């Protein structure tokens, strides 16, 4: 494990393109797309998918949005650790009684809607519980990052929780450091319920020697999780609790299972397949925007070269002035080629 701050420079912009034609799981080094904006109450009500907790199915766009949201939360957790040398915990009073959730404590470190999150954070009274007369008014202002796509804008309950208890990455006892999370296959934030009010200091209770908690998953076909190293996965929704326990313990000396065997077996639905041509058109437009900016950068650098006193280029952490980003374009190109070969094989097999 490393305490280096996770960064997503050009990969952040290329995330939509690099996903190819299927919807795949993202690991810590894969590009990331911007999470979709949650629906309004009327939009959610008009969705064709079933809304029963036990029947709701996560479509491809849902899965990508959920993984990206968890990745942003984990990025904020890493930023919090870099700033305070510990992981976020529930805000407590002088007697150790929890007042507000870690989700409130994390607000200043969430980059999505940063200004709004900073302003919201300053409105809380940190000497009062989450449901005090003052703090309860702020429950209605839940940030989008804690809200699933199917949840209306007015929703105040979140599925974004972690397993809290002895031996977990968010052990409520000691103030853990990165080096304390020895197993990099340790679960961080997951999408599971029952959902709780986002400011309430409540998460999934866990104790190694007690019965495993019954999880209420928001979707029937996937269990979306983020690990402490920032990797996100869509796991099978019916995993054996014994397997989950191996992923929850931060240093249980248990061999971690192969995550590839735990990933949900997903296939695109007929509706998703019918949407793909539209998505590909959007990707073509997105690629053209990138190409236009590359051409503009080439023009501007050419103009700089003609100046008698060549100025220094502005500092750039990603080293993209010298073409360092080309590896990302190559990766995108290779993924598209690979997907096209897969498509051609499917077509050839059908024709036979």
Task: Throw out a few tags for this protein.
single chain; 352 residues; alpha+beta; 2 domains; 5-stranded mixed sheet; two-stranded antiparallel ribbon; 35% helix; globular; disordered N terminus
Q: Oligomer, anyone?
A: single chain
Strand % is: 5-15%
Specify the helix fraction band.
25-40%
Q: Give me the number of helical elements.
A: 8
Topology, number of strands: 7
* Count of discrete structural domains: 2
The mean pLDDT is 78
Radius of gyration: 22 Å
SSE string, helices as H and strands as E: HHHEEHHEEEEEHHH
- Largest sheet at a glance? 5 strands, mixed
Structural class: alpha+beta
User: How far is it from the N-terminal to the C-terminal residue, by CA?
Assistant: 49 Å
Which regions are unreliable across 5 or more consecutive residues at pLDDT < 50? 1-52
Topology:
Elements: H1 10-18, H2 41-45, H3 60-84, E1 91-92, E2 98-100, H4 102-105, H5 114-123, E3 157-164, E4 187-197, E5 204-205, E6 223-227, E7 232-235, H6 241-248, H7 270-305, H8 326-351
Parallel strand pairs: 3-5
Antiparallel strand pairs: 1-2, 3-4, 4-6, 6-7
Helix pairs in contact: 1-8
């Amino acid at each position: 494990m490393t305490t280096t701050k996770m960064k997503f420079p050009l990969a952040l912009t290329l995330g939509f393109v690099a996903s190819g034609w299927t919807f795949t799981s993202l690991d810590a080094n894969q590009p990331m797309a911007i999470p979709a904006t949650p629906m309004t109450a009327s939009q959610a009500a008009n969705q064709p998918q079933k809304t029963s907790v036990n029947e709701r199915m996560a479509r491809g766009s849902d899965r990508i949005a959920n993984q990206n949201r968890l990745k942003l939360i984990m990025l904020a957790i890493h930023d919090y650790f870099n700033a305070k040398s510990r992981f976020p915990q529930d805000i407590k009073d002088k007697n150790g009684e929890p007042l507000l959730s870690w989700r409130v404590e994390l607000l200043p470190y969430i980059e999505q809607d940063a200004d709004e999150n900073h302003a919201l954070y300053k409105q809380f009274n940190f000497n009062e519980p989450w449901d005090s007369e003052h703090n309860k008014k702020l429950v209605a202002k839940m940030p989008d990052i804690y809200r699933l796509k199917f949840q209306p804008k007015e929703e105040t309950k979140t599925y974004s929780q972690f397993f809290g208890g002895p031996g977990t990455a968010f052990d409520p006892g000691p103030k853990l450091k990165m080096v304390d999370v020895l197993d990099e296959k340790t679960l961080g934030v997951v999408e599971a319920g029952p959902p709780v009010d986002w400011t309430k200091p409540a998460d999934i209770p866990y104790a190694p020697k007690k019965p495993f908690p019954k999880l209420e998953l928001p979707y029937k076909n996937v269990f979306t999780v983020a690990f402490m190293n920032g990797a996100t996965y869509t796991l099978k929704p019916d995993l054996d609790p014994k397997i989950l326990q191996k992923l929850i313990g931060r240093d249980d000396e248990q061999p971690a299972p192969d995550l590839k065997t735990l990933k949900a077996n997903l296939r695109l639905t007929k509706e998703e397949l019918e949407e793909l041509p539209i998505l590909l058109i959007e990707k073509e437009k997105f690629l053209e925007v990138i190409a236009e900016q590359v051409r503009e950068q080439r023009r501007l650098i050419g103009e700089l070269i003609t100046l008698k006193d060549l100025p220094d280029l502005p500092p750039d952490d990603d080293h993209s002035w010298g073409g360092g980003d080309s590896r990302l374009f190559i990766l995108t190109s290779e993924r598209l080629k690979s997907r096209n070969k897969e498509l051609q094989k499917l077509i050839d097999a059908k024709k036979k």
